[in-house]
Design a protein that fits this description.
With about 270 residues, the protein is of the alpha/beta class. The chain has one domain: Carbon-nitrogen hydrolase (Nitrilase/N-carbamoyl-D-aminoacid amidohydrolase). It contains 7 helices and 15 strands. Keywords: Hydrolase.
Length: about 270
């Protein structure tokens, strides 16, 4: 099946972001994409100072638009970090998924908050304004089961391993790595998650905006179960297309059967909730 990653240029105007995102979703659908993903923070600038201002409840304005365009195009639509979600007085970094009938299939709240300090390069603390999610998020399609993470979640190998154990064959991480962590780890982490679990990994970033307070690395990417990069964007706004070949995935798992060779009598990773 065909996967499309929309590397969107994000402005400070929410309505413009939504309009442009929906237009690119329609374009991707017209090109035959059955599963379309938007980047983390697609409808607002990324930064702790913006989260409260742009926050919405779910359902709300942004998710309603995503539901409508998913139904219009009859596709599966991953809404990136659709919005900073407001719920019960707390804010979450939340990704929504809608099916071809417009129904909400999954809602992933970012589990691992981006609190880092690289002296002289970048300091960021999502926990100043956001609360963490506490659950894994998977959804079924006629093609395969898909597991969701958001950006920093990709650094935690155990999360990806559990998705693999639960039958996911594709992991999608809407993310916004920056100009320090992007060139160092963006592709490396994706290839590691793909090879370790013998599945496809796709990441979808905002386009780079050098004038923004937080500059995203871009380079939305798809990696196959052999660890090969099979599609990658540059820094500009674009739509990345790739065909996900589940037959190839099955062949790789048969050739190198690590999933059957794990020594579960010696070690294991488990999902607690």
């Amino acid at each position: 099946f065909r996967l499309a990653l929309i590397q969107l240029h994000v402005s400070a105007v929410k309505s413009e972001n939504l309009q442009r995102a929906c237009g690119l979703v329609r374009e991707a659908s017209a090109e035959g994409a059955k599963l379309v993903a938007l980047p983390e923070c697609f409808n607002s600038p990324y930064g702790t100072q913006y989260f409260k201002e742009y926050a919405e409840k779910i359902p709300g304005e942004s998710t309603q638009k995503l539901s409508e365009v998913a139904k219009e195009c009859s596709i599966y639509l991953i809404g990136g970090r659709s919005i900073p979600e407001e719920d019960g007085g707390k804010l979450y970094n939340t990704c929504t998924v809608f099916g071809p009938d417009g129904a909400l299939l999954a809602k992933h709240r970012k589990v691992h908050l981006f609190d880092i300090n690289v002296p002289g390069k970048i300091q960021f603390k999502e926990s100043e304004t956001l609360s963490p999610g506490n659950s894994f998020s998977m959804f079924d399609t006629p093609f395969c089961k898909v597991g969701l993470g958001i950006c920093y979640d990709m650094r935690f190998a155990e999360m990806a391993q559990i998705y693999g154990q639960k039958g996911c064959q594709l992991l999608i991480y809407p993310g916004a790595f920056n100009m320090t962590t992007g060139p160092a780890h963006w592709e490396l982490l994706q290839r590691g998650r793909a090879v370790d679990n013998q599945l496809y990994v796709a990441t979808v970033s905002p386009a780079r905006d050098e004038k923004a307070s937080y500059v995203a690395w871009g380079h939305s990417t798809v990696v196959n179960p052999w660890g090969e990069v099979i599609a990658k964007a540059g820094a500009e706004e674009t739509v990345v297309y790739t065909d996900i070949d589940l037959k190839k995935l099955a062949e790789i798992r048969q050739q190198i059967p690590i999933l059957n060779q794990k020594r579960c009598d010696l070690y294991g990773v488990e999902m607690k909730k």
